[in-house]
Design a protein that fits this description.
Belongs to the small heat shock protein (HSP20) family. GO terms for molecular function: unfolded protein binding. This is SHSP domain-containing protein. The protein is 8% helix and 27% strand. With 168 residues, it is mainly β. The protein starts with 43 loop residues before the first helix and ends with a helix.
Amino acid sequence: MSLIPSFFGGRHGGVFDPFSRDIWDPFEGFGLAAAVQPPSGGDREAAAIANARIDWKETPEGHVFKVDLPGLKKEEVKVEVEDGRVLQISGERRREQEEKTDKWHRVERSSGRFARRFRLPENVRLDEVRANMENGVLTVVVPKAEEKKPEVKAIDVAGGELERERAE
């Protein structure tokens, strides 16, 4: 008798093995997998790279994006700003050439195209965006524009003379 219900994938006699190398999908069987598949026929490999992991943090100096792209070269990645303030990071990892004599036992590395888009705030300097790729991590820095301080105009405060002039 299993302690874990069979809707957890039915693997290993209905028991979820956390040390198994199999990928467990908690939503398997609930019809949600189709909702996250890419529109190109449900290619699982393309779905994996389409979800490139990105961190976006804001510092006092600007916005910093870090993207994990292991195995990609800088020539395979594009960083663009379109429509004024939309940052787009895209690229493609190509599948390795297969030989007819090859016998694959497991294919987990993803391949395919990816594109991620982010609407940037208005206070950025788009002409100074810079990107760097090192050790499979793409870093994009979008500097902030200097905040315009409100112009303050001092007004002299008159004594009772202004009121007397109005009364006359």
